[in-house]
Amino acid sequence: MTIDPIRLSMLQKQLDHISRQMGWVMMRTARSPIFSQSHDFSCFLTDRSGCVIAQADGIPVHTGGGGFAVRALLARFGADIHDGDVFLLNDPHVAGGNHLPDWTIIRPVFLEGQCLGFTCNRGHQSDIGGGAAGTYNPQATEIFHEGVRIPPIRLVEKGEMLRDIKDLLLLNTRTPELQEGDLSAMIGSTRIGAERLTAIAKTIGLEGYQAMLDQLMDYSERRLREAISQLPDGEYAGEDWSDTDCFVEGVTKVKVSMVVRGDELHFDFTGTDEQTQGFKNSPLANTYSSVYLAISSFFDVSIPRNEGTYRCVHIHAPEGTIVNAQSPAAVTMCTVFPAQDIINACWIALGKADPQRACAGWGRNTICTTSGLREDGRPFVMYHWIGSPGTGAVAERDGFNTMGQMTTLGGMMLPNTETYEQIYPVHIHKVEFRQNSAGAGRMRGGSGVEYHATIKVKGEYSYRGEGARRPTGLGISGGRDGGGGAMFVASVGGERQAAPQYGVRRQGPSEIWITSPAGGGFGDPIERDPKAVARDVEDEIISPDHAFEVYGVVVDEAFRLDLEATQDKRNTILRERRQAAK
Amino acid sequence: MTIQAPWRIAVDAGGTFTDIVIADSRSRLIAVKAPSNPPNPAKGVLDGVALAASRVGLSVEQLLQGCSRFIHGSTVATNTLLEKKQAKVGLITTKGFRDFLEIRRGLRENPWDHRTPFPEVLVPRSLRVGVTGRLDASGAELEPLSYQEVLAAAEYFKSKGVEAVAVALLHSYASPQHEVEVAGILRDVWPEAWVSLSSSISPIVGEYERGSTTVVDAAVAPRIVPYLLELDASLSRLGLANRLLIMQSNGGTVSVETLRRHPVTMVLSGPAACVGGLRYYSAASGHQNLIAMEIGGTSCDVSLLYRGNTPITDAVEIAGHHASIPAVDIHTVAAGGGTIAHVDQGGMLVAGPDGAGARPGPACYGLGGGDATVTDAQLFLRRLTPGPYAGGVISLDGDPAENVIQAQIAGPLGMAPDAAAYGYLELVEQGLIHAVEKLSVERGLDPREFSLIAVGGAGPMHGASVGRKLGCRSVFVPRVAGVFCALGMLNSEIRSDFVQAVRLDLDEAAPEKLEPLFKELESKARAALEGEGIAHADRVILRQFDLQHPGQQSHITTLYTNGDVVAARAEFDARHQQLYGHLQAGSPVEIIAVRVVAVGQQPALPMPSHPLSEVPPEPVSRRKTYVDEVLKWHDTPIYEGQSLVSGQSLRGPAIIEELTTTVILGCGDVLSVDPAGNYEITFEG
What we know:
The complex is a heterodimer. By secondary structure, chain A is α+β, with helices and mostly antiparallel strands. In chain A, about 30% of the residues lie in helices and about 25% in strands. Chain A is globular, with a radius of gyration of 25 Å. The N and C termini of chain A lie far apart (about 65 Å). Chain B contains 17 helices and 37 strands. Helix content of chain B is about 30%, strand content about 25%. In chain B, a hairpin with a 3-residue loop joins strand 1 (about 5-15) and strand 2. Chain B folds into four domains: about 85-225, Dna Topoisomerase Vi A Subunit, Chain: A, domain 2 (3-Layer(aba) Sandwich); about 290-470, Nucleotidyltransferase, domain 5 (2-Layer Sandwich), CATH 3.30.420; about 495-600, Dna Ligase, domain 1 (2-Layer Sandwich); about 620-685, no CATH class. By secondary structure, chain B is an alpha+beta fold. Chains A and B meet through helix 1, helix 5, helix 6, helix 9 and strand 14 of A and helix 4, helix 8, helix 13 and helix 17 of B.
């Protein structure tokens, strides 16, 4: 059938509108701060075969991954899916999940007795049991240490919550009250999505609706093909690596070879290291999401992000490597690491194909979680998010000086000090930008921050100091790497010592210092606008010496530029570089 | 034309034009449009008043002497920030925390668009100074404030040419003690500096939100307060007996004397006056539930009245800067007469967000615009008449419209030009529908229980179609559709909001704990109403709670009357169910803030009432217009708005040409003229 292209534009907007509307409901109703403050969830719609058709409201590292979950549900339940049912799953090895804390609620949507698609919500739970409070267990060596595993199961049958199942789930969390509220919020959001979707499909008719979805996905595919065809054909390599598997130091590498051929992209991860004993392993759904994130953040933001978009992207992830981990690998860290390694490797390869669009690396976070009992006896889990890293630069802007996990691309809200001091037994001494850390470049990286806090009660500390050693915000297209991070701890009044990079410790009242890693620079530092350098000096983001040595910019005590001396210095730097090259 | 005293005057000053509306004691409305004067806003207002005076055959003095209320709203505060003309601000904060303003909580509005920089931070790092001194979360002092460091900051700011100082110290919502000390020091050593204290501007929890609000206040204050004082003085010198009233973001007015304590509350002045407009037309139409859709050249503002109340939000974004102030909840989308259509690389039609602006404007303006816009589509479908448009400011030309529709839309899509132009209008209208839904459905309200008010130059062209698709009860088109907000000012009340952050469990909150908190806010509220000269009988003071389940990001504001905590909880639960579709009946609820609203009631703007005519209306002409996909080109009657009188009715398809807008009726739309002369459209079938 022929479809009016304007009707198609309208349908696309309607589907996006529905997924956003689901997000409004979720955002405002969820109980856990991880939803209500960090927006760690994604609402999405799929067609009846499980292809994601709209995900306007979602965190970037969930992109496209939800399709794996719906297809796993279809494989398990087939025709045994009925109007009024709601399903749940989380397992990455058997249920198309990305990691156990992300629970996916899936609601089939029916019209005239026929399934027309699914409305879904994937959200990070506050606690799912397992070896550590707060879902992240850095000591896990197999998935059984990470919490409750849920295959595709029915949670609501013909509109009735299955009480036995719910009781079982709530018994397996340390925060049953939060989880009960969160589950209602997730289910509520899929119900509102389903109502809206049915209304739309009704006006179009079931057959017409599916035909239009197909065309929408074709359209998205055309848009990405058009963008890819602008890249020169060829093979481009990228890699990034971690210096720890959470237990021992050592290189764990993600390696990608990207082939551009016409309007298709091939990502081959052959050469990537084998899955590790720790929890930094990526199941396939998460690897696909990460590659999709790298692509969509690289190209024009107006290109839609549904599963049609990525039909021209081919991914080969060898089984048993950290980008396609097999059971019973522990995987909880995957949405951060190796997701960030995968994205960086792909960004580097893409940046070689089009240096002007290249994205410098974001610093790897160097944080920890403190859990324990407040002075009034109530339990708490506090993420030291305030010590988040700086981001990489791109041609259009400097890096952001501090931002949450890069796999959310800034979709995660950082806490206020005041709120933390109100609800947690903590006193925060300092949150300020670092100096001379930002990856130098035509556009500089984000500086990172100095964070210092005292936790007034005893507690359990779960360390995740991925960026605590080497520089991790990688510079690109001539930009320099951002400064590395560090984390120190001391018992109150005791001696300051380096925190373990990964690990869980029980500590008395403690002080913690986080120097968060800085982001990478973009382009040659000596091409940076001298006025921007002078501003950075005046703002104490860099020192006058740093301005002189790295940027070749001469600034006096009143922060006035000496353009002539600057030109001389920059010429000298160029001359020295030429000599060094010889 | 003669007007009968006493009358009210409203002046709504935008960036380009200033609307002046006079309502006299016989309910007659006179609307005048004058150019604004951004470099000298006080003179802009006075010139507008002079123009209005000449229009009604009075001297400026006569006009002001006969005026019982003079209300002014202005976009000066917003434009100051948009055009980066704000004052140079220095920020004093707690040592170790000088960067919260630039961290912006690490949040990107659209994460996928990671390439667009943040708007330039309002206070550069070099002008953000941390000083020693620390409170804890209860407001208790952990470390005294350093006098020396505040002194040094003042000297430093002076040397840097700072005009205004924002003070935002950690936990000052719990105790203003240190901020008051800072203000005292500054007053002693630098009396001419403007000083904004976060504990006074917006005493809420969260250093970013409170601090940013304070910085915005300091940034706009030196650009607003002097001109308002000057205007106030000039008007009273020229004969205005009552004091000048200023429209605030909360939809209420205050005197200049009150406003100067927190000029940030003027940022939405203008659009926020929709509250008065909604109330006015609620009275006229008898509808308690109204949604206003004000569409101009580039944007559409949606606002709402539900059971007689307009939702108030507690934060707004101005030019990308956060301000936590009570503000009428207005949802703005980029959709207007000038919204540009284009077909993207994948062959999909996209509406906006770019607009053609006033110059060159839509192609049909004939001023060199080469983009296809909404106005071009309307003209091509012959719903607009070629020739003088928008009160004669512009002349519409059909040829360029036809060319751009063909070249920019129909050609690339492979569609017939009329179907393409009509499809484009449908796409734009879907955007309007989504905007209305965002404001209504998002808070659990059903648009089918509302009537729509279509205002602004382009509103009445889309009103009937959008209202029908949303299933609204009716669509209301005021006869003075072009000056909705200025009219709203004439019908506004005096209002001040007071808030205090707390953290208390609702169920355990004993009245003896709550009473002192409210008492303190109420004494401020009474003082404010006293200061505005409001008689006791006209004073309304309301107590409110901001409530949430622990951990929730957003709260629900409920009334707290007669010390009835149970009723507050019941209202919270009911609203929670309505907003979110579920209840958490057993879960604890905490009070995160207590609020007091002080309202000074003002007599409502009376509604005119005309005799009803039984003569059927006569069209002035007929022509083929493109009505919809079924009727396509159809012989359509064209009516002249000026000839339609109360009591008359007609059915669509039809077109009514007003001086500054056009009302478009589709199939099954029935329009009647109410006793006040406004149009109400209902739907058949």
